[in-house]
Design a protein that fits this description.
Rossmann fold, binds 2-amino-2-deoxy-6-O-phosphono-alpha-D-glucopyranose, 242 residues, 7 helices, alpha/beta
Length: 242
């Protein structure tokens, strides 16, 4: 694993955006695996800025997102589709027909997962997968458990994740209890992985996930087995590793 130390959140965002923009420049028709959460917001803002300056062209790019809440429509401000549209899709020249997320409105979980697996297979796999890191080590919505789930699946969110996400909803009752997420095998099949982490509150999980044992109890620990992972983290997030 390559570790790139950033001074702070802005520096992390710029460095991560540099890696993504290099991918888009080197392979204009690449498949980007995208993530939500608060950590990549600055990365997307930087990409938008470079697009507006004429340095980036997304016209041939395809995107597949990691996850989506089950039960939320695209118009719901807390849906991950809405997030992606707000932070990236509506601000660059991407072809919206080439942007994919699991369908949160599909009540049949098996169908939603099957359909999304087909989407990922049809686009030919992911060239660069962007990831954030949950406080409990989750990636996408692969929550701590007894096994690494291979492909897209419906997950019951843990209390800790629901609490962490509560800040975006009016009340705890409004926080969805389930989500559809890409599985670990799919994430591991990405050619390159870029993981962004910021803040002292993530320092302990950074150490556990990337320097501790590989275990489904800390899902991100599996990334230790991938041969092209870059962690871009700020000093605060790296403060527990020497
Ligand atoms: C969310 C998302 C993840 C994200 C993580 C961390 O629940 N499903 O993809 O990486 O939690 O979020 P944040 O960056 O806001 O800490």
């Amino acid at each position: 694993m390559k570790i790139i130390k950033a001074k702070d959140y802005n520096d992390m965002s710029r460095k991560a955006a540099n890696i993504i923009s290099a991918q888009v420049i080197m392979k204009p028709n690449c498949v980007l695996g995208l993530a939500t959460g608060s950590t990549p917001i600055g990365t997307y803002a930087q990409l938008v800025d470079w697009y507006q300056k004429g340095d980036l062209d997304f016209s041939e790019v395809t995107t597949v997102n990691l996850d989506e809440y089950k039960g939320l429509t695209r118009e719901n401000e807390q849906s991950y589709y809405y997030f992606m549209n707000e932070n990236l899709f509506s601000k660059v020249n991407i072809n919206l027909e080439r942007t994919f997320l699991p369908d949160g409105t599909e009540p049949d979980s098996d169908k939603a997962c099957r359909d999304y697996n087909k989407v990922i297979a049809d686009v030919g796999g992911v060239d660069l997968q962007l990831l954030g890191l949950g406080h409990n080590g989750h990636i996408g919505f692969n929550e701590p458990g007894m096994a690494f789930e291979a492909e897209t699946h419906c997950i019951n969110l843990t209390e800790s994740t629901m609490k962490a996400n509560q800040r975006f909803f009016a009340s705890m009752e409004d926080v969805p209890r389930q989500a559809y997420t890409m599985g670990i095998k799919t994430i591991m099949q990405a050619k390159k992985i870029l993981i962004v982490v910021s803040g002292a509150d993530k320092a302990a999980i950074v150490k556990e996930a990337f320097f501790g044992p590989i275990t489904p109890k800390v899902q991100a620990s599996v990334l230790q087995l991938h041969n092209d992972v870059t962690l871009v983290a700020d000093e605060a997030a790296l403060s527990e590793i020497s």
